[in-house]
Amino acid sequence: MNAPMPQPLTWDSPSLTWDSNPGTWDGVASQPTHSQTMDNRISKTVSPAQKAAIEAAIAALRTALTTPEDLLLNLTAEERRSIPKIGDKTLAFDEKCAAYSAQRPELVPGFTDTAEVALDRALVSDLLPCLQQLAPLCEGLEDSITAAQSDLLMADLAFYSSVKDAAKRNVPGADTIYNDLKARFPGRPRGGQNPPPTP
Fold it and tell me: How far apart are alpha carbons 112 and 97 in whole angstroms?
C-alpha cells in the first residue's frame, strides 16, 4: 500500500515545529481534524439597512457638532502631548478652584479672562457627556474590526504556509504566488506570540 501524501502545512497544524532549522517551520501536517480549525473571534454581518442607518447617524452627529458653529478642534500631535490636561485626579482640583474663585473673585489674577473660563467650563459640561456616551461605541467598533482583522490574518498566514509548502513541492504556479506574498510578508507578531512562518 502506498503511503499517504503529505498534507500542505497550515498555520494551526499541531505538527509544525520551530526548532529543527532555526528561523523556519518544519514538520508535516496531519490530516485535518475539527481540533485544527482556526479560532474565529467574530462572525457577524452588517445589513444594508443597518449600514445606511449608521452612516445617517454619523452624518447627523457631524452636522450637529459643526453647525452653526464648528465645535471640533483639531490639535496637532505635539499639542496633544504637551498641553496641560484635566484627568480624574485633577478634576476635584478644578471643581474646587471653580467654587473658590466664584466665592473670592478678588483672588483671581487680573490676567485671567473669567468670561473665557466660564465658556470653557460650559463647553466641557456640554460635550463631556457626549464623549462618555460615544467612547464605548468607538471602543466596540475598534474591537470588532480588530477581531475580524485578526481572523483575516490567521487565514492569510495559513494560506501562505500552504503556498510555501506547495512551492517546495513544485506545484504549478505556487512559486509565483509564494514569491509575490513573500515580498509583502508581515513578519513576526509582537508580544511573545508564537512566531509565524518565515518567508
Answer: 13
In angstroms, rounded to a whole number, what is the distance separating the alpha carbons of residues 42 and 143? Answer: 10
Residue linked to cell 508535516: 28
Nearest to 197 by CA among 39, 8, 7, 11: 11
Reduce the secondary structure of the chain to three states and give it as a string: CCCCCCECCCCCCCCCECCCCCCCCECCECCCCHHHCCCCCCCCCCCHHHHHHHHHHHHHHHHHHHCCCCCCCCCCHHHHHHCCCCCHHHHHHHHHHHHHHHHCHHHCCCCCCHHHHHHHHHHHHHHHHHHHHHHHHHHHHHHHHHHHHHHHHHHHHHHHHHHHHHHHCCCCCHHHHHHHHHCCCCCCCCCCCCCCCCC
> In terms of C-beta distances under 8 Å and separation of at least 24 residues, what long-range contacts does 27-34 make, across chains too?
31/7, 32/7
Q: Is there a contact between 181 and 153 (Cβ–Cβ < 8 Å)?
A: no
pLDDT tens-digit series, residues 125-166 = 999 999 999 999 999 999 999 999 999 999 999 999 999 999
* pTM summary value: 0.70
pLDDT of residue 82 exceeding 90: yes
